[in-house]
């Protein structure tokens, strides 16, 4: 079985809801990172054998097979196929794992794993269920309700439940959120994201190069003033991920393709895991998926140099730290989704870009990425920087 190498890892800067990136049609936004991948590597675009595009809100401007539409809007030839996938927030992390599996099996040699989400233009919930008469319905079928009676599956409720289970206070969550903004602001000022960000030209001719959601002036006082999402709860918009517009792409190549096309590997895929667990508490699965991933890789958490754990809600990475005993100084060292934004289907490849470039910038070797996902799912990807 051949190895799978990451030869390019790029993302757009994040845009706030209704902000600078909202003027970009999501198809063109996705096409932009596909084009940048080709330009960044100098590879013949006709050599790309597949594009796997993660996207959660596959309706409206993101409907009708956004992966294929992105290819058609890009510089890639019509001969390059594509597929659009949805594993909720882990969609483009799954894109990476599917691409690596194709390469490692010898089925393909060059695959772009990508993701896109314009949460300004296709808001969360747009893909809600409808009846045969096109009236509002429910994705919870009678059979599903029989198995989980009276349960309204909710990520917000899951985040609150995790905070209660692990005894995190509102102050704990706000302190983590503040750290996210501080780290992201420091990383931006130091140019830590320069190697991964694809600039976007705006309607006024400005080039957008930095993540729009970072609050360099964030404080505990300001965070304490944000209302909780439920009475008596601890989750607020301040300690949860930001709605965000963005796209990302990772080029996965076989050893033969690396040699044939003169590519420079940035990292190799060391291990891949996906698990399913409790769909009610829902967002706790990265804890247990990490246990399995480390066991399968024959590694301990102390051997991992950097971790990217998606900051969907502050309670998730905090619970992950508590469960794994991981070093908090290695976690989300350049900030996370609370400060940088969480463009749903694009976040998996976005975090991989940050992880790979972060490892190389620090001269470190192993990185672990994991993400909580709707329905009680989690992906874990372990990479080795080269």
Overview of this structure, please?
The protein is an alpha+beta fold and 386 residues long. It is 34% helix and 19% strand. The protein contains twelve helices and twelve strands. It has helices spanning 26-41, 66-73, 91-104, 142-147, 155-165, 170-189, 220-224, 255-261, 285-297, 315-324, 337-340, 347-362; strands spanning 4-11, 15-16, 50-54, 82-85, 110-118, 200-201, 207-208, 244-254, 267-276, 306-309, 366-373, 377-385. The strands form two sheets. Strands 1, 2, 3, 4, 5, 8, 9, 10, 11 and 12 form a ten-stranded mixed beta sheet that branches. α1 crosses α2 and α9 crosses α10 (315-324). The model has no long low-confidence stretch (mean pLDDT 96). One of its GO terms (molecular function) is acetyl-CoA C-acyltransferase activity. Keywords: Acyltransferase, Plasmid, Transferase.
Write the layout of secondary structure elements.
Elements (H helix, E strand, L loop, with lengths): L3 E8 L3 E2 L9 H16 L8 E5 L11 H8 L8 E4 L5 H14 L5 E9 L23 H6 L7 H11 L4 H20 L10 E2 L5 E2 L11 H5 L19 E11 H7 L5 E10 L8 H13 L8 E4 L5 H10 L12 H4 L6 H16 L3 E8 L3 E9 L1
Parallel strand pairs: 3-4, 3-5, 10-11
Antiparallel strand pairs: 1-8, 1-9, 2-8, 5-8, 6-7, 9-12, 11-12
Helix pairs in contact: 1-2, 3-12, 9-10
Beta percentage is 15-25%
Helix- and strand-based class? alpha+beta
DSSP strand tally: 12
Rg over CA atoms, rounded to whole Å, is: 20 Å
Separate helix tally: 12
Question: Strand-and-helix sequence, N→C?
Answer: EEHEHEHEHHHEEHEHEHEHHHEE
Q: Please report the distance between the alpha carbons of the first and last residues.
A: 20 Å
Shape: globular
Mean of residue pLDDT values: 96
What composes the largest sheet? 10 strands, mixed
Q: What is the percent of helical residues?
A: 25-40%
pLDDT below 50 for ≥5 consecutive residues: which ranges?
none
Pfam families: Thiolase_C (PF02803), Thiolase_N (PF00108)
Domain Thiolase N-terminal: 5-255
Organism: Sulfitobacter pontiacus
Keywords: Acyltransferase, Plasmid, Transferase
């Amino acid at each position: 079985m051949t190895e799978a190498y990451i030869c390019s890892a790029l993302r757009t800067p994040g845009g706030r809801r209704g902000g600078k990136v909202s003027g970009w049609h999501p198809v063109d936004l996705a096409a932009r990172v596909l084009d940048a991948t080709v330009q960044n590597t100098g590879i013949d675009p006709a050599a790309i054998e597949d594009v796997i595009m993660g996207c959660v809100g596959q309706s409206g401007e993101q409907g009708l097979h956004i992966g294929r539409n992105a290819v058609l809007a890009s510089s890639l030839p019509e001969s390059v196929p594509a597929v659009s996938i949805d594993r909720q927030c882990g969609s483009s992390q799954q894109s990476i794992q599917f691409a690596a599996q194709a390469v490692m099996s010898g089925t393909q040699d060059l695959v772009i794993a990508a993701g896109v989400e314009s949460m300004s233009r296709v808001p969360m919930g747009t893909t809600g269920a409808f009846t045969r008469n096109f009236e509002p319905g429910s994705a919870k079928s009678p059979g599903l309700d029989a198995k989980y009676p009276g349960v309204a599956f909710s990520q917000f409720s899951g985040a609150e439940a995790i905070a209660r289970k692990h005894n995190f206070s509102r102050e704990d969550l706000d302190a983590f959120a503040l750290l996210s903004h501080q780290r992201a602001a420091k990383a931006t000022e130091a140019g830590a994201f320069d190697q991964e960000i694809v600039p976007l030209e705006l309607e006024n001719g400005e080039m957008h190069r930095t993540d729009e959601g970072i609050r360099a002036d964030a404080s505990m006082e300001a965070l304490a003033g944000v209302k909780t999402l439920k009475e008596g709860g601890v989750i607020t918009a301040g300690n949860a991920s930001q709605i965000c517009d963005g796209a990302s792409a990772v080029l996965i190549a076989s050893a033969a393709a690396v040699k044939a096309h003169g590519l420079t590997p940035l990292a190799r895929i060391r291990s891949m895991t996906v698990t399913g667990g409790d769909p009610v508490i829902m967002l706790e699965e990265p804890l247990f998926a990490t246990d399995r991933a480390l066991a399968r890789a024959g590694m301990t958490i102390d051997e991992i140099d950097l971790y990217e754990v998606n900051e969907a809600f502050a309670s998730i990475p905090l619970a992950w730290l508590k469960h794994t005993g991981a070093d908090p100084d290695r976690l989300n060292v350049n900030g996370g989704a609370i400060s940088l934004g969480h463009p749903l289907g694009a976040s998996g490849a976005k975090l991989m870009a940050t992880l790979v470039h972060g490892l190389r910038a620090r001269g470190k070797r192993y990185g672990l990425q994991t993400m909580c996902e709707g329905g009680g799912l989690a992906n874990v990807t372990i990479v080795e920087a080269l």
